[in-house]
Every structure is written in C-alpha cells, then in structure tokens.
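Thread: MotA/TolQ/ExbB proton channel family protein, structure

OP (GT): Posting the sequence first so everyone is looking at the same thing. Length is 463 residues per the record. Can we get the structure tokens written out before standup tomorrow? I want them in the notebook alongside the other entries.
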Amino acid sequence: MLLTTASASLSYGQAEAEFAVLIGRTQEKIEASLDEYQAFLQETQSEKLEFVREINKLENSLVKLRQSELIARRNATEDKLQLDELQNRIKALDTQSQYSQGVLSEYLTNFESRIHISEDQLYLDPLRETRETLNNAPDNPADRLPILFQALELGIARQEALVGGRQFEGKAITPLGGVKTGQIAVIGPVAFFSDSEGTDAGPLRFNSGTIEPGLSTIALADAEKLRSVLATGSGLLPLDSSLGNALVLKRAKGTVAEHISKGGWVGYAILLLGAVAILVSLFKLIDLRSLSVREPGDLASIAKTAASGAIDDAKSKIESLKGPIHKMLTLGIEFSRTDTDTQLDAMESSILRFRPQLERFLPILATTAAVAPLMGLLGTVVGMIKTFTLIEVFGTGDAKSLSSGISEALVTTELGLIVAIPALIFHGIFTRIMRSRIGSMEQIATDFSRLVFAHKPSKETEQ
C-alpha cells in the first residue's frame, strides 16, 4: 500500500515536472508568438499606413479625375452646342449663298434680256465671257459668286453711265438694209441713232436675226432735232411711248388694198358680192321711197262720196295720191256698189300685185348674208391648206413663210363677216318696212270698206 502510494507520489511528481516543463515551453512559444504577433502588427500597421496613404492619394486622384471628367463633359457639351450652332450657321450661310447665287443668276439673265438692243454692242462680249466662266466654274457658290458679282458690278456701272443719258459710237441697220456707223444715245428705255454722214436719224428698235438694231424712219423735222441733240447734248427729242412698236405696227398694218390682197381670189369674190349687195341696198332705198304708203286724211269723205254713187267725184278726191295706195282706192271706189267681201277682195288683189314690187331684190340680200360667211369659210380652208403645204416644204421654224396662208385664212373670214352682217341688217330693215307698208295698206282697205258700208243707204230708204 505504501509502495503503491510512493509510486503514485513519484508518478505525480514526474507528471508535475513534465507539466511544468510543458508549461514553460508553451509559455515560451506563446511569448515568441506574441513577439511575432507584435512584430507582425507593427509591420502590418506600417504597411496599412502606406496603403492608407496610397488609397488617399488614389482617392484624391479619383476626385480630380472625376472633376476633370465633369469639366471635360461640360466642355464636350459646350463644344457640341457650339458645333451645332456652327453647323446651323454654316447651313444658313449656305442657304444665303444659294439664294444670293440664284438672285444674281436671275439678275444676269434679266440684265442680258433687258438692256436695249443698241447696247449689245457694248455688253455682248463681257456678258459672253461671264457666261463661259460660269459654265466652266464648279457648282459651288464660293466659286460662282465672285463671277456673278462681276456681272453685278457691270450692271451697276451701266446704271451709273445711263444717268442723264449715255452716248457712244455704234452701228445700226437702215430701213434699206445697209449697216451704218454713227452716234447712239440711250436715254431711259429708248435709244436714238444718227449716222456720221448726217443722212439717217431716228429711234432704234430690235432687228430680228442681227446684233445691230434697226433704224426706224421718222419725219425730217424730228430727224433734224435728233441730230441736233446728239451733236450738242441738249434739245427736244421725238418720243414714242410704245418704244418703237407703233412704227413697226404701222408698217406691218399696210394699206387697205394690201390687207384685202392677203385674202386672195376668195377675198376679191367676197368683195364683189358685197359690192352687189351695196348696189341692191341703195336701189332698194330709192325704190321704197317711191313706193310709200300714205293714208289720205279725208278717207271718210271719199268713202261717203263713193257710197252715194258719185264714182267720178270720189276718184277726183284721190288724184293727189300717188303709188299703190291710189290704185287700191281706185279699185275700192269702182267696187263700192258691190258687197263688202267683193270690194275687199278687189282691194287685196291690188295689195298682192304690189307685194312683189316691195319684195324685189330682197332675196339677193338674203343670199348674200348666207353665202358671204360660207365664202369666208372657203377662204379659211384654202388658206389652211396653203399653210400646211408650206409646213411640209419649210417646216415650222420660219413663221414668216407661214404668214401668207394664215393671213388668207383670217382675212377671208373677216371679209365674209364684214359683207354678211350689213347685208343681214339691211335685209331685216327692208323686210320690216315692206311688212309695215303692206299692213298699212290692208288697214286702209279695211277702214275704207267699213266706211263705204256704213254710208250706203239701206234698202228701206231706197224704197
């Protein structure tokens, strides 16, 4: 038991010693670990400080970068706005350039077309050069506007030169077809010319197919005034408000004979028909005056005398009457002893014999009024056939060669209407007069027969 207890004590002591050793070792390890931990903490703390400093630097850099980004974005937005504004301004300027180019191009066209024909001698070459330069220039306003500005400057220089009138040496085509050199004066919209020889002077007009203007003939007194103005620079000028068109129209109009000759043979046939209608109308006027119908003022007295049986006395009362009314009343007096119907039939027979005298030559006027337009239509057809024949030969390019056929077509229609309208009017007037006179005679016959019947003695009175 003691042994066991000793052994147990010995074992417990050994264990306690070993445990103490182990505790010492453990304590050493713990202290070593703590030292290592402290060293690690110190190292970590120093590294953490470095990281913090780096993080702070990076955060500061990030803040600066974000600020730079905001500034860059704001600048980019402003730049975009400025770019959009510049693009809009560029578009507006481009639109203005295109508009300016269109306006100046139109000005150039108007300048070419509106200058006086006499000024072509001054501006034809510069304008041709401008046109050729424009045709060769790129389709870009920047390249074309300077060229158009040259044309504008040329027009402005022309306007400045025209203030108060402009005089220069040039050429003109005389009425006989020759070309003469002389002084040209452009005053407003008109131009005047006087040759160096002092023989021809007058206003200038457009001459088709030539560069030089044509000279219009004026009165000698006006030509002398024009030469004086061109020589001295002052005086009175002959002014044509139509700018030369009146003289051209006057020459183109021609005489009546020239106008009628354009109608050809159909026109002459229509005029012949019209002459016949005029002669018939004049004869008919004279004829109607001779065949007048005048009711006697004492018709009741004549009827009473005829009813009483005094035939000769009644006839003596109508001796002053002339023409058809005398013949009709004579028959009425002669048939006064018969019944009313017989008397009226006798008087109406006189009216029927008188009617052809009133109607004579009227069919000629009616025929003329109907035929003249048809003859005008015939002339129109003939003229159009002639025109189409000329078109087949010469084409449609030369209007002057076609004018003869067109003139014939229109002139014959005109002449046909000129003849037909008066003929129709006179036919209507003469027909109305004829019907009026026949109606007057019928009325006189009816009144005379009624008065004779009223004054006849009754059968009881005779018994």
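GT: Both are above now. Quick notes for whoever picks this up: The longest strand covers residues 179-187. Residues 202 and 218 are 6 Å apart (CA to CA).
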